[in-house]
Amino acid sequence: MKHSRVPLALVATVMVASSALTACGTSDDEGGGGTAKQPPKTTALDINQVDPAQLTRGGTLNWAIDQFPVQFNEMETDGNQAATNAVVEAVLPSLWHSRPNGEQVPDKAFLLDVASRTEGGKQIVTYHLNPKAKWSDGTPITYRDLEANVRALSSKDPAYKVGSPAGYEDVSSVRRGKDDHEAVLTFDKPYADWRALFGAPNNTPLYPAKYMADAKSFTTGYLNAIPVTANAYKLGGIDKTAQTVTLVPDPAWWGDKPKLDKIVFHAMTTESMPAAYANGEIDYFDLNASVAAFKQVSGVKSGEIREAGGPNYRHLTFNGKSPKLSDPKVRKALFKATDRETLVKSGLKGLNWEGKPLGNHFLMPNQKGYRNNAGDLGTYDPKAAARLLDEAGWKLDGGKVRKKGGEELKLRFVIPTGQPAAKNEATILTQMWAQAGVALDIRTVPVNEFFDKYVTPGDYDVAPYSFSRTPFAATGSSGTYARDGGGNDSKTGSAKLDDLLDKAGRSADQATALETVNAADAEAWQVAGVLPTYQLPEITAAKKNLANLGAQGMADIAYERIGYTKQ
C-alpha cells in the first residue's frame, strides 16, 4: 500500500515507490478487478470493490510487507514505516476515512459527527465520539484520549520522540464537552487541515491515553507489542522467528463484522515478493512500481494487477544556491528544455500505465482541487530555453556547451546507486539538455548518502527523486517549498509563496484553502525550484477473488470490508 512517510509532510524518497496511505472506498471514481489489456487511464481506486454482504465469511489473507515491525507506535520516530502502518491501522481507531480524491469523511465507528467554527480569531472543533467505542481493555474512548494524543504529538515536550507534530502543535487546548464523548479542541489560529488529526489517512491513528501519558510509555508501550487495540481486528500473535504478525477479528468490535478469519503479514525482501506471490505463499503485495516485478507477476493466472494513481510523484530538484542555478532564468530555461512527455513514457515503460506530465506541485490529478498551473513552463520549448539562457549571459559562442565568464554550464546531476529511474532520467536529460547547450556531470553516490551528504547539504546542482504525500495539501507542503522549510532542498522560494502557503494552511474553509493552494502552486512554478515530471502509479498484485483491497490512491483501507468473493 503506502510507503514510509512523515505525517503532513512531503517526504523525499529515492525509490520509485507507491504510496504510504491506505484505502477505504466509497467514491464515484472506482476501479475494478481484472488485468488491464490496454494501459489504463489514471483512476483513483482499483480494489475489486464488492459489497461485503456478497463475500464469503472466513479465509486468510497473506500480505507481504517489506520489513518486520518492531515499533508499533507509528507516531514514534522509529515507527513511521509502511509496514507498521499496514498492521496498526487495522487494529487502532481512525476518526476519518479518506476517499480516493482525498476528501475526508468521519468514520462513524468512532466519530459520529464533527463541527468547526471560528470565534475571536480562534478555531474551535467539536468532536462527537461514538459512545460504543471502547479499547480492548474495556476503557471507553473519550476526550481524554484525544487530549493525551495532542499533548504527546505537539512536540512541546522534547522527551517524546515524535516524527512530526503534524498540526498537533497548533492545538492550544482540549477539553471535555457536554460529556466524556464530546471533545472540544481550540486552535489559536484557523487550521485548514484539522481533519488530519487522529486519522489513519495521515498515518496518525488514535492511541490509548495511558500509552501517551508519558514519554516512556510513548516509546516502549508499543515496542514489540500491541497491548491495546480498538478496531475490527486485534493482535493474534507476533512471531519473530517466522517474521509474521497475525491479526484476528475482535469479537468485541461494535462495527461491521470483518469477513476474514485472519490477516497474516509476512515480512520479506521486496525482491522475494513476486516469487512468493507466484507460488501462492502470499495473496497481496505492493510492487513499488517495479517493472521487473510487474513482468514477473503479470502471468500469474490466479492473480491480477491493480493500478491507480498514487500520491507519489517524480520530480527534478534544482539547487537555487548553486552559483550556476541561482538565476531563476537559468532554472526556467531548464524547465523549458525538458521534454516531460519523454520522461513520462520512458519512466512508465513496461508498467502498463498511461501517464502524463504533472501540472501541480501540491495536488495529484485524482485529488479534489487539482489544476494544471504549469503554463508555458510546463511546455517543452528548446528555442525559448535558448533565449532565456542567452538573456542570463550563458552563451554558446560557437561551442557545444554554453559559457559565462569562461566557465561552462556543466551541472552536477547527482543520482543514488541502484535506482533505475534516476539512472534513466540522467541518460535522457544528458541528451536533451545538450541540445540547449547544457552539459551534465553524472555523479552516482551511495543510496544511503544521497540525501544526508548531497541533497540536504546542497552538494549538487540537479537531483531526481520522488515526493510522497498525504491528502492534506495545504499544510503538507510548507516544509518543502517555504523559504525556511526544513525540507526545502532546492533552497528557493519567495515571500509570495510563503504567504500563500500560510494562508492556505490557515483557511478554515476547504474551498478557499484549495484555491489558495493552487495560487501557491502557480507561484511555485515561477520560483522554478522543483520541476514535477509525472505522478507515479500505485501498483499492487492481488488474488483475483480478493475484494476491497488493491491500489488505494488517496483512500484508506476499510479492513473489515476485505474478503474473498464466493467461488
From TrEMBL:
Residues 1-23 form the signal peptide. It comes from the Bacteria. InterPro entries: Peptide/Ni-bd, SBP_5, SBP_5_dom. It comes from Streptomyces chrestomyceticus. The keyword Signal applies. Residues 120-485 form the Solute-binding protein family domain. This is ABC transporter family substrate-binding protein. Keywords: Signal. SUPFAM superfamilies: Periplasmic binding protein-like II (SSF53850). PANTHER family: MONOACYL PHOSPHATIDYLINOSITOL TETRAMANNOSIDE-BINDING PROTEIN LPQW-RELATED, PERIPLASMIC BINDING COMPONENT OF ABC TRANSPORTER. Pfam families: SBP_bac_5.
